[in-house]
Design a protein that fits this description.
- The complex is a heterodimer of chains A (95) and B (234).
- With 95 residues, chain A is an all-alpha fold.
- Chain A has one domain.
- Helix content of chain A is 80%, strand content 0%.
- Chain A is built from four helices and no strands.
- Chain A has helices at residues 2-24, 28-48, 52-76, 81-87.
- In chain A, helix 1 (2-24) packs antiparallel against helix 2 (28-48).
- Chain A is elongated and about 55 Å long.
- Chain B has 234 residues and is mostly helical.
- Chain B has one domain.
- The relative contact order of chain B is 0.16.
- The chains are: A mainly alpha (95), B mainly alpha (234).
- Chain A binds chain B through residues 52-53, 55-57, 60-61, 64-65, 68-69, 72, 75-77, and chain B through 54, 95, 122, 130-132, 134-135, 138-139, 141-142, 145, 149, 221, 225, 228-229, 231, 233-234.
Chain lengths: 95, 234
């Protein structure tokens, strides 16, 4: 039981860390990988909380499909957040 | 004078609507004896002979909603395809993809068949194990995605995708209509339920609908990814 709790808290901390990373990161490709890690841990959570079918959906859609659609979008647009804001003379909302 | 009359009428109509509907408790006449949860848990076993309650709710009790969801996905895929198709038509050049290494290429080819098999397993056993048509379809689409990423000129035929998708959609709606013809509700079960629970051939129409949904979602998402990947960047 305690092992289960430790695993739970460890995963939760990892998930929050990945979320903060993907918000702070200026390289949008790495930020997308951060969101994909969030989805991966979330699917493990769903499995631990006895919702295996939701875990399957989350693993397939959140980890694979959403990430690849973001990656395709980044490939066709800009990779770095800073460039975008410099080019248009707008202040970055993160600063 | 006219405005006052309209206002008076509106107030009267509103008053009587509130008066009538406040007497009827919200949705109370639809809720069976006890509560909804017990109703579904009981009926899944007695009426449908299926071990997976989630599946029985999604496909049978709430089958009409699932039809709507599938339609929404179809609409999203076709709108995306139509938008990207117009941009591609006057620029036929394919998007630049770097050639992948030998390890990635042969690894993808090795994994492709098992991923497809897993997807098929998930939607064929949708009524017995966790998972179902949507999940299985998405897993199949990720298998195709792997091949699309690993091989630069991997082609997916749009005509085949269109046929598979249309046939699956027609099967889903057709099963519902057959239920109507047999004198039951839309999407109600009309096939024999099978003797033993947990058998592959049990659950009436649920496995057939889930196989149709799996094919539909898989082909839709594969076509969507193919269109997106072949879109040329600016």
């Amino acid at each position: 039981m305690t092992l289960y709790l430790v695993l739970f808290i460890f995963l939760a901390v990892l998930m929050i860390a990945a979320a903060i990373y993907s918000v702070v990161q200026k390289d949008l490709l790495y930020a997308t990988l951060g969101t994909s890690i969030i989805s991966l841990i979330l699917s493990v959570f769903f499995y631990l909380l006895q919702a295996p079918d939701v875990a399957l959906t989350e693993a397939a859609i959140g980890v694979a499909l959403t990430t690849i659609i973001f990656v395709i979008t980044i490939r066709n647009t800009e990779r770095y957040e800073e460039d975008y804001h410099k080019k248009r003379n707008v202040k970055s909302p993160l600063k | 004078m006219k405005k006052v009359l309209v206002l008076f009428l509106l107030i009267a109509i509103g008053y009587y609507l509130v008066d009538v509907f406040s007497v009827i408790p919200f949705g109370a006449d639809r809720i069976p004896e006890g509560n909804v949860r017990d109703f579904y848990l009981e009926k899944t076993v007695t009426d449908l002979n299926v071990p997976n309650t989630v599946t029985s709710i999604v496909v049978n009790f709430r089958g009409f909603d699932t039809l709507g969801e599938v339609t929404v996905l179809f609409l999203a895929a076709s709108v995306l395809g139509s938008i990207l198709y117009r941009r591609r038509s006057h620029d036929e050049e394919k998007a630049v993809l770097l050639p992948s290494s030998k390890i990635v290429a042969s690894g993808s080819r090795l994994l492709f068949a098992p991923i497809l098999l897993l997807g098929a397993y998930v939607f064929i056993h949708g009524h017995l194990t966790p998972g179902g048509g949507f999940q299985g379809g998405v897993i199949i689409a990720t298998g195709f995605l792997l091949m699309l990423l690993a091989y630069k000129d991997y082609k997916v035929k749009h005509s085949i995708i269109m046929w598979v998708e249309s046939l699956a959609g027609v099967t889903f709606a057709g099963i519902g209509l057959v239920g109507l013809i047999m004198g039951k509700m839309f999407l109600e079960n009309f096939l024999p339920l099978g003797e033993t629970m947990n058998n592959l051939f049990s659950g009436g129409v649920i496995p057939i609908i889930y196989i149709a949904v799996g094919f539909k979602v898989g082909s839709e998402l594969t076509g969507l990814l193919y269109t997106l990947l072949n879109e040329k960047g600016e």
